[in-house]
Structure prediction request, 178 residues.
Amino acid sequence: MTFVDTVDLFSPASRRERVVDWQAPGPTAKVAAAMSGMEAMCGIRDGILPPPPFAKLIGLQMAVVEPGRIVMELDPDESLENTIGLLHGATAAALLDTAMGCSITTMLPAGQTSVTLDLKLTFLRPLSVRSGTITAEGRVIKLGRQTSYTEGFVRDGAGKLAVHATATFSMIGGASPK
Prediction:
């Protein structure tokens, strides 16, 4: 007899549920398109604009907005774990992609945005629910007319570096950054 034969892995006692609500992104996107990137990021941070649905889905919150720098926070829960009890690597990737993209946005005029071209992560230590509040920081390295470059860091609740990332973004729409 194996462990699987003796434990009901699908028992009601093991079941979890999480309800996620969000605002439709279309109306927010229209309002934000008329704002500078800094105004839009501050609007999300300050609760004037609703956060994107994806941020609500994983529990990501914008904590710091500065020109060329964003810090996001996440209080992890077991819904983000993989089968070995650690946060799935996609969690860090999502945090970093968001923070680094938003760091570029802080430097853009109304009507301009960026999209990810590549994202490289180096995992230095595992993260789990026990890691405490996780922060993801994105910083602009070079803002360009066609492509921009960023660097990002994920730290655990004790401030220890867990993931380092670099990314390239393609600039789309609007006038060229100055």
Notes: The mean pLDDT is 94. The two ends are 69 Å apart (CA to CA). Residues 75 and 133 are 5 Å apart (CA to CA).
